[in-house]
User: Fold these one by one.
Assistant:
Number 1:
Amino acid sequence: MLSKETIENFKDMLEGNNFPLNKCSHRETSDVAERLHNFGFLNKDRNEYTVTHADRKYLKKLIELNSWNKFKDWLNQEEEKSPDTTVTNNFYESSVGQINQAIGGGSIKKPKNSNKSTKDSLLKRASLWIGIIVGVFSVGFILYKIFYK
């Protein structure tokens, strides 16, 4: 069970306050805050801990459970329930392409912008056709000059 002072310190952090690190800081709160920092749920500056908006839910759950061991068990259950995480790096208009990394499978998805016809591709097609037409006329003109002098 967490002490009342630890719970109050974490409630203050939920209100937007920080937890100062100094010799007078509550020892249990410092220990639990260090563990939360190691999990990535708290930010540690030079002499204070702060919580980000995205990680407030973890601090709320710790206060609700009022026990570090129950919190660890809950965290393990959450990790087991969560679906595989997909990280997508989309390099726009690059030859690198799209990289998809998934835990437990590695499925590769079709890039989102593969079916788009851009002005650049239309310009390339037009210049290709113009080049072919000019090439055919120039070869015809050269053959005409050679055979019909």
Number 2:
Amino acid sequence: MSKWSEKDESLQKLRNLKPSQSCSVQWFRDGGGEVHRVYDVYVLFEIPQYGGKPRYIGTYGQNQLSELVDTVYSWA
């Protein structure tokens, strides 16, 4: 799967989240991004690859989902 289609798939996954749901984005070997939808905002946490506590990265609005996905994919 190309990087472009992976990003598109992640973006669609976020758009389909209902309030109070969460999902992983760009998961790799037990690490990646975890997103929680709280009402109409999306809260991003980085999950460390080798364990440890999730790290808060930022809060994004519905019109910033592409930026959220770009942030997560920049970690790989």
